[in-house]
Design goal:
globular, 22-stranded antiparallel beta barrel, Maltoporin, Chain A, tonb box, Immunoglobulin-like, 861 residues, membrane
Length: 861
């Protein structure tokens, strides 16, 4: 058969589709005439859809001759309309059985949209973002979309290689509260000890939730402890799971890196494969069950052969190998016309493999020029030395069940949620040097687990006749948390030749010992009251107060005031004042271990004693207590014409008694040196309320939509300016005069590196019929770090460029191809023996893997 004939039908189909395509523009409003944000507009019978913007507007290029649109939104009855006329106006009626309303994080008022909010809120349509970009997990997706959000993959950072720390507005990972469907989610059991951000912090592992299960992500960029409790100092991330029914979506994605500085620079590595399915079934009137299955496999990247300026670097350096499997469910089950039950949650099973620092066969030469054997290696087992592999088995699960309904004029929501994160370490390709040639090479190193149980009651009522509307809300929360450390096998921590000078335990990561084991728990009770008053249609005031009591450190009261003033239909001012707090995590209070750090190429065993442990008490460090914050924001939002919108918000956050991981005290210290020598460790670090910080910043977003030719171009400019200062360091009397070690220049620089001083994102998204193109520039500001030398490591600003092209092969099938960091930009290079990780750079800015090439095939039926 003539192959040219096979092309003809494809060309004709494409031409017909081009001819039939038409631009559909419109706005989705509620029954009161207010815009519905994040509504889904889908051309019936196709995979062609879009979400509404902050003003409820949408522009969609139709693919059929007589298109019909299906418009849906949380809390509203789904509506199907014929697409006709220059502008399509859709009015969605509030569903009598969908009682959630259009509640946006930051407000407890039903039908309070993001444009009405006195606090800055970003709404990210995950389906639209993932359709065209190369990022496959939630952390990396937000890193390149939301300027105030920062997350870097860590390398050479033990457990942090397997769990990416993330932050808002340059604060710690544990200073951002994560909700799913408005319910508090559990944190990871991991305490970050290494890396450029999150040191000494715990945080929520966002990557346990597959992007395929998410409808949208709401980011409240404002202190919200009075509304949601502990951890909301920097803001709140609310992940809203999918609610769609009678629709099957399937995605297959693959990408790989092409490193610029490899000796074999044409070879691809770090292959990343992802496949997922999502389907929803209707249940009764207005109910549903929506389920997602997701699998992701990410391979190692090798960046150790980068030509570093000087010094010997490790032989294996790069991203870890990771296998992820996730299953998530979201459901709503009507019990009556005004009451329904709901169940949502899921689990994630992760297996990771990350290389530790190389154990070379020798450590130098003696005075006669002979090689000195490395006491941490064994020439018989590993003639050329070895590269230990730290393995992880992480199981993460969370489930929430509840009942919600209207009882008279009151809306009530009662729920119970339980979450657990278990992190189990292992070692491959390692040894216990004190066992010599009899040593095993595979070890069980133990681990830790964090669990959380939350009972939550929320009650609200709207008084429409009070001024222009008054919304009252109150409720309470009972939370219980558990934390445990469990030991590894004896060979992973035992020294079988005490006094020999040979370090015991598994190389790369010594196992947890029986003396590290513990079971800790605590209780928390919180109550809150919240009121929002529309004094006039233009003037809104809001106030909230919250009381919480923790069984391990006491009580705390926080409050918040906020206001919004509309000067016109197209311009509004807004501002907030709030106090906040963060309770020390059980992991920070109880974590203790001996781990191996590599300083200037020399391995050193480091003790981290628990907060109430014997060494901690010996140096006078008091029990950890809460962090306290004061924050303020002021800004404006507006629109010029019907195509351009903008928001600008400045903020200030002061945190007192911030919990940090101190610097390392050596075993020759005159206060604790003898104790460390007796324990056979070289250094010690502690958790302490050691510092106070102040953060100033500005968030700005400008979005514009224009017709270009017969297509539509949407342009977004988003920027975050951020500056953090350490205003004071509080040491203990016994360590007075040692502030430079306790929390000195090096540790302060790592805290400041949680965010660059500025990050700017410019994105252009063009759609024409079945074709789409995306071009994105992200400019990362400079980062300064002090590693294991007195010299400053100054990472200069970098601009990365992403490109993507998409085409709808059929009405149900589309293909996207593209590249992230297409020009192969890297951070500055430094001496590997001076960096935290032992590589040619620290994990900063946009990452260090180089150009990423990807392809995505998406089906929607």
């Amino acid at each position: 058969m003539n192959k040219k004939l096979l092309i003809v039908p494809f060309v004709l189909a494409s031409s017909a589709a081009w001819a039939q395509s038409q631009s559909l523009a419109g706005q989705v409003l509620d029954d009161a005439g207010r815009p519905v944000i994040g509504a889904t507009v889908v051309e019936k019978g196709t995979n062609n859809g879009i979400g509404t913007d902050a003003n409820g507007r949408f522009v969609l290029r139709a693919r059929t001759a007589q298109p019909r649109l299906v418009v849906s939104a949380l809390g509203y009855t789904t509506q199907e309309v014929a697409a006709s006329g220059a502008s399509i106006a859709v009015r969605l009626a509030t569903s009598s059985t969908a009682l959630e309303g259009v509640q946006v994080v930051g407000s407890r008022s039903l039908n309070r949209s993001v444009t009405d909010s006195p606090s800055p809120v970003d709404i990210i349509d995950v389906r639209q973002v993932t359709a065209k970009t190369g990022q496959l997990d939630v952390n990396q997706l937000l890193q390149f979309v939301a300027p105030s959000f920062n997350s870097n993959r860590q390398t050479g950072a033990d457990g942090a290689d397997h769990v990416d720390p993330a932050s808002l507005r340059g604060l710690g990972p544990d200073q951002t509260l994560v909700l799913v469907n408005g319910k508090r989610w559990h944190q990871s059991s991991l305490v970050n000890l290494f890396g450029s951000r999150g040191r000494g912090n715990t945080g929520t592992d966002l990557n346990t939730i597959p992007a395929a299960s998410i409808e949208r992500i709401e980011i409240l960029r404002d202190g919200a402890s009075a509304q949601y409790g502990s951890d909301a100092i920097a803001g709140v991330i609310n992940i809203v799971l999918k609610t769609s029914t009678k629709e099957l979506t399937a995605n297959v994605n693959y990408g790989a890196y092409q490193a610029k500085y490899r000796f074999d620079d044409q070879k691809l590595d770090g292959g990343n494969f992802n496949a997922n399915l999502n389907y929803g079934l209707p249940v009764g009137k207005g109910g549903f069950v929506n389920a997602t299955v997701d699998f992701n496999q990410r391979e190692h990247t090798q960046r150790a052969n980068v030509p570093a300026p000087d010094g010997i670097q490790r032989r294996q350096y790069g991203d870890p190998r990771v296998f992820n499997t996730s299953v998530y469910v979201n459901s709503k089950l009507p019990l009556s016309e005004k009451v329904y039950a709901y169940v949502f949650g899921g689990f994630n099973a992760r297996r990771g493999e990350a290389y530790a620092y190389t154990r070379f066969p020798t450590i130098g030469k003696d005075s006669l020029g002979h090689d000195i054997p490395n006491p941490r290696s064994n020439a018989t087992l590993y003639p050329d030395g070895f590269d230990p592999v730290i393995t992880s088995n992480v199981f993460d699960g969370h489930g929430v069940t509840g009942v919600r309904g209207t009882f008279g004029p009151w809306d009530m929501d009662l729920s119970n949620g339980f979450g657990s994160n278990r992190f189990h370490y292992g070692l491959n390709n390692s040894l216990n040097a004190t066992l010599g040639v009899k040593s095993p090479t595979i070890f069980d190193a133990g681990g830790f687990q964090l669990q959380q149980d939350v009972v939550d009651l929320n009650v609200s009522r709207n008084f429409k006749t009070v001024a222009q509307g008054l919304n009252l809300a109150f409720g309470g929360e009972l939370r219980r948390e558990w934390y445990q450390i469990f030991a590894g096998e004896p060979a992973s921590y035992t020294n079988y030749q005490p006094g020999s000078g040979i370090p015991g335990g598994s190389q790369g990561f010594p196992g947890f010992q029986p003396r590290n084991e513990l079971h800790a728990s605590r209780n928390n009770v919180g109550v809150y009251a919240d009121a929002e008053l529309d004094v006039t249609k233009a003037f809104l005031v809001e106030g909230a107060v919250r009381y919480e009591h923790y069984s391990d450190f006491g009580s705390n009261v926080t409050g918040k005031l906020a206001t919004r003033l509309k000067l016109s239909d197209n311009f509004a001012l807004r501002g907030t004042l709030s106090t906040g707090f963060r309770a020390p995590s059980l992991a920070q209070i109880n974590f203790n271990t001996v781990f191996t750090n590599v300083v200037g190429g020399v391995p050193i065993d480091v003790l981290i004693d628990r907060n109430n442990g014997p060494v901690t008490r010996a140096v006078g460090i008091p029990p950890l207590t809460r962090e306290l914050s004061r924050s303020a924001s002021v800004g404006f939002t507006g629109r010029i014409g019907s195509v351009l919108s903008f928001t600008v918000d400045g903020y200030y956050i002061h945190i007192q008694d911030r919990i940090v991981l101190t610097g390392a005290f050596p075993n020759d210290d005159n206060i604790i040196g003898p104790t460390l020598t007796a324990l056979n460790v070289g250094q010690a670090q502690f958790f302490a309320n050691a510092a106070s910080t102040s953060t100033f910043g500005l968030d700005a977003v400008v979005a514009n939509t224009l017709g270009v030719g017969t297509g539509r171009l949407t342009t977004t400019l988003a920027a975050n300016l951020n500056r953090l200062n350490v205003t004071s360091v509080q040491t203990t009397p016994l360590l007075a005069g040692k502030e430079d070690i306790f929390f000195g220049q090096r540790e302060q620089a790592f805290v400041k590196a949680s965010a660059p001083p500025y990050k700017i994102n410019l994105t252009g998204d063009y759609n024409l019929g079945r074709f789409g193109a995306l071009l994105r520039f992200v400019y990362f500001g400079p980062v300064d770090l002090y590693d294991y030398t007195p010299e400053l490591n100054h990472y200069h600003p970098r601009l990365t460029t992403d490109v993507a092209l998409s085409y709808a092969l059929t009405n149900q099938l589309s293909l996207s191809v593209g590249s992230s960091n297409v020009f192969n930009k890297y951070p500055d290079f430094f001496n590997p023996q001076a960096t935290e990780t032992g590589g040619a750079w620290d994990p900063v800015q946009m990452g260090s893997n180089g150009r990423f090439l990807f392809a995505k095939l998406q089906a929607r039926f």
